[in-house]
Task: inverse folding
């Protein structure tokens, strides 16, 4: 079972934060097919957020085919990311960590590193997915 | 979808002072409504009118299609926690629950019991000896256990510390998830409203400045930053709610149903706090001097 958190200063709408956290947990291999997501009541009881926010996030995830809702039972993960994509994560992470070390050695602080990543992300996004 | 609260030209005067003026609202069922506004803007007056503790001076208010407190059925459907979450300081927690049971036909004794246990309240303890947070929770428990269709809460968390506030809102949201009750609550804390409310009503200067679903409000309000240029360049479907100028730069809060593509402006999403502050400010100024030039 995963637990959600809310970043109230991010400017990202709460329902989107839940969607992103589910997707991230899938990508990081923390959630697998058949796993149950916390119930709406559990989430709102923990985070003190509007129940409609959680329902909306779950509906959207269901629409994307990531989860499946079984009436009266709960919401379950419908598919996990296949193993090949999980296997590619490790070397990528390793590369990134190495890069991080050289960035610090070059004297970059956190803010500069983040800005650089963001900039590269922006300039390269679309080249693959478009 | 039927309306929980519907008002038309609702006005309340205390002697010569106007507390609420020509307020027309229609709030659909199934929402957690945040009522925000500066002190003295008429929030408590509106809530007291909704529960029938006050009568309108002019205009009308209906709750579930009936006059508030019109009869036993209407009283049964509405739960109210007044400002400062009052309890009877001489009565024990247990007495409060018994009192609730005797005066409410739909009383859910097992729910009340569960809540009290969950909160770890001592049944024998007098309400006067509970902490502020516990008293607020007791008042909420009584209001919830009556199983109303509408819960009206007047500044329920204003006097609570952050932890007690979070616990109060957790229980409130659990209740909404479990019993699909509509809620209207007044608050000064935009961060709390943003978390728990999906519908917003902004009162300022005794008038409704804005009301609607939070999601719609967020998608139709934008923060525009650009050179100090005549604002008249904006199309007439775009309404400037607030504008600030330096000698070179203008910052606007604009309402617009469509996207704003004018390249001279940097367009950012407005936050709920931006929107609340802008509309509160609008209520303060007279329409004439709200800088549109």
Result:
């Amino acid at each position: 079972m995963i637990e959600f958190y809310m970043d109230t200063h991010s400017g990202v709408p709460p329902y989107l934060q839940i969607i992103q956290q589910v997707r991230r947990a899938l990508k990081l291999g923390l959630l697998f097919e058949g796993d149950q997501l916390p119930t709406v009541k559990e989430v709102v009881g923990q985070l003190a957020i509007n129940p409609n926010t959680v329902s909306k996030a779950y509906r959207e995830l269901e629409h994307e085919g990531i989860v499946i809702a079984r009436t009266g039972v709960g919401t379950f993960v419908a598919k996990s990311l296949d193993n090949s994509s999980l296997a590619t994560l490790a070397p990528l992470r390793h590369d990134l960590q190495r890069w991080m070390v050289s960035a610090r050695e070059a004297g970059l602080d956190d803010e500069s590193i983040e800005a650089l990543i963001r900039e590269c992300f922006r300039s390269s996004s679309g080249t693959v997915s478009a | 979808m039927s309306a929980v609260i519907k008002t038309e030209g609702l006005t309340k005067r205390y002697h010569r002072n106007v507390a609420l003026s020509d307020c027309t609202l229609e709030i659909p069922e199934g929402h957690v409504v945040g009522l925000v506004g500066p002190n003295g803007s008429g929030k408590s007056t509106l809530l007291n009118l909704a529960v029938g503790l006050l009568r309108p001076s002019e205009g009308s208010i209906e709750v579930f299609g009936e006059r508030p407190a019109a009869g036993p059925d209407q009283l049964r459907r509405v739960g109210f926690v007044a400002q400062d979450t009052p309890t009877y300081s001489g009565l024990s927690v247990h007495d409060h629950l018994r009192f609730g049971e005797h005066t409410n036909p739909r009383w859910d004794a097992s729910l009340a019991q569960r809540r009290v246990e969950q909160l770890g309240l001592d049944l024998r303890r007098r309400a006067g000896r509970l902490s502020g947070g516990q008293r607020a929770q007791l008042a909420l428990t009584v209001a919830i256990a009556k199983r109303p269709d509408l819960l009206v809460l007047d500044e329920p968390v204003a006097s609570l510390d952050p932890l007690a506030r979070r616990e109060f809102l957790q229980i409130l949201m659990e209740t909404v998830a479990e019993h699909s009750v509509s809620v209207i609550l007044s608050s000064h804390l935009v961060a709390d409203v943003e978390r728990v409310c999906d519908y917003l009503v902004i009162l300022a200067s005794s008038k409704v400045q804005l009301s609607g679903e939070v999601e719609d409000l967020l998608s139709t309000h934008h923060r525009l930053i650009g050179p100090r240029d005549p604002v008249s360049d904006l199309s007439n479907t775009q309404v400037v709610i607030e504008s600030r100028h330096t000698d070179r730069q203008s910052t606007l809060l604009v309402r617009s149903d469509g996207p704003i593509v004018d390249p001279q402006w940097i367009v950012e999403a407005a936050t709920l706090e931006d929107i609340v502050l802008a509309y509160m400010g609008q209520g303060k100024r007279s329409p004439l001097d709200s800088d549109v030039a």
